[in-house]
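Protein Record: Sequence and Backbone Structure Tokens
======================================================
Scope: a single protein chain, as residues and as a discrete description of its fold.
Tokens: labelled as protein backbone structure tokens, with as many entries as the chain has residues.
Position: the record begins directly beneath this header, with no further notes in between.
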Amino acid sequence: MTDYFRPLVNYLRPAPKGALPLAGGQGWFTHAMHHQRGSDPVMILASEVPADWQQRLTAPRAPIMDLSFDQPRVMGILNVTPDSFSDGGSHNTATRAVSHAQRMVDHGVDIIDIGGESTRPGAQTVPIEAEIARIEPVIQALRHSITCPISIDTRKSAVAQVAVGSGANLVNDISGFTFDPLLARYCADNDLPVCIMHARGDPATMHIDPHYDNVLLDVYDFLEAQVAKLEEQGIPREKVIVDPGIGFGKDIGHNLTLLHNVSLFHGLGCAVLVGASRKGFIGRISKTETASERMPGSLAVALAVIAQGVQIVRVHDVVETTQALSLWHAISKGEHS
């Protein structure tokens, strides 16, 4: 039977004697939850966590794109699509997109994630040529105006190749490198960092009655398997970011289970990203139908996962998120520098 260990993360200062550091950041833990399939999790001492899990949980995460992970990082969403669920059409010209990206940079964003294909529930696959036509001029223009790292949000190797040639630095694949078998090889050959996300099914159908044996452990196992496959293809673990894929083939209960237990994913030994901004479950819990009005709920989710040591939050509302994180950071340290 496979064992899983979820650290119970704390940020109080000073940390007590015997506390283990979490992933090289400010967090620490003295206890963990021991998960097994078919039984309820059991709390144990951190010292009882097996050595291999301790190593992955405590080892500092290597910088990616020169970004260290000793503090939370913000990835700003830049959709250059006509039909994304929250901001479709808002930035679908190069001029608008560059202006929005510059505003995000001015407010302290760490990474800009550019996507040319909507992956909202029910969305259809966009032809490669159309996706390239959307992202290429934007990335080219941004590369001349900002120094912030750029991520390309795509499932397709042909799109990634054009994006990287235009100045993108990271490939963020919502299919977890299952859609295009050539994409991982391209990233390995070009020494690119990547983000692996979990999704159940294709965007066109992923929202239709999703089922899991155990959503937390099923998602963990998928990400572990995909990280191992990438390692075999030449992408080292330290260049991989993992994302449990909130809202991608998950219902509200699945999403809440993953968010409540998100510190489990530190056991993969990778930086962890959560992208829950403005998603439908926030609207249902807060009774907010319009996606653009879900900023307060999105902030609550971002702060909750950062309190569990998540290294990157992917958000629409950069100004509000960076302000909230600056306060969270100061309070967790008990000082401002």
